[in-house]
Amino acid sequence: MKSTQTLNFVKLATFVVLVVGLSASAFASCGDTLTGMAAAAALRNPSHALMPGSILSGSKNEPDSGNWSVVGLWHLRFVVGDQTIQEAYQIWNQGGTEVHNPNVDPRTGNVCLGVWKTLGKHSYQLAHRVWIYDNQGNFGGTIHLSETIALGSKGQTHNGTFALDFYDPSGNFQFEVAGNVIAERISVD
Predict the structure, then answer these.
(1) Rounded to whole angstroms, how far apart are CA atoms 55 and 70?
(2) Which CATH number fits the domain 2-186, given the four candidates 3.40.50.150, 1.10.10.10, 2.40.128.120, 1.10.1740.10?
(3) Cβ–Cβ < 8 Å for 160, 56
(4) CA distance 128 to 81
(5) Phi/psi class of residue 15: alpha, beta or left (left: φ > 0; alpha: ψ in -120 to 50)?
(6) What is the DSSP letter of 47?
(7) Strand-strand pairing, 139-152 and 72-80
(8) How many whole angstroms separate alpha carbon 182 and alpha carbon 76?
(9) Contact 181, 78 (CB under 8 A)
(10) What is the reported pLDDT for 64?
(11) Residue among 13, 42, 35 at smallest CA distance from 112
C-alpha cells in the first residue's frame, strides 16, 4: 500500500514538473486551470489528493420539505485538503445531463458537459469529461471527473466527493486527484 502511494506521488510530482516546465504551452480547455491547481494542491497535500474525501453532510435527518431536486443552477467549489482548486457554475438538467462552467479564461474553453443519475433518496452520481489541449492546439489527453453528492439544507446545498482521473492522449491512466465538492443552489429569490 505504501509503495503504491509513493508511486502515485511520484507520478503526480512528475506531472507537476511537466506542467510547470511547459507553462508556455499550458493546457487550454475546460480543465486548464483545474489541471494546474489540482496538481499544485496535490503536491502540497498528497495524502488528501490521492484518496477521496467523504460526503460532508447528507439529508438523512432532514424533513422532506424544500426543493429536493438536484435539477437547477449551482455555485460549487472543488476542495483538496483545505485548498479550493476550482469554483464553477453547474447546471443539472432534468434529462440527466449537466453543464459545467468553471472560472477559467473563456478563450481556453470554459464549458464542459456531463451526465448524471440518481443513486438514492437525495443522492446523485455525475460523470463528466474534459478534453485537454495545449496553446498550439495539440491534444494532451482527457480528464474524467466524477462526483458523488448528497443534497442537504432542504435541497439548497449539496456536497460529497469528486475524483479527477487524468489520461494521456493514448487513453492511458496517469493519476487521480480526489477531494470534496461543496455547492449552494442559485435561486431567483
Answers:
(1) 16
(2) 2.40.128.120
(3) yes
(4) 22
(5) alpha
(6) H
(7) unpaired
(8) 6
(9) yes
(10) 57
(11) 35
Position 157, amino acid: T
DSSP structural state of residue 96:
S
| pLDDT tens, per residue, the chain with 189 residues | 555 554 454 444 444 433 333 333 334 456 555 566 555 555 555 444 444 444 444 444 555 566 789 999 999 999 999 999 999 999 999 999 999 999 987 766 678 899 999 999 999 999 999 888 777 778 889 999 999 999 999 999 999 999 999 999 999 999 999 999 999 999 998
Residue 39 makes CB contacts below 8 A (sequence gap 6+) with 12, 15, 16, 19, 177
**Cβ-based burial of 12 (10 A; exposed 0-12, middle 13-18, buried ≥19):** buried
Contact 177, 186 (CB under 8 A): no
Strand partners, 75: 89, 184
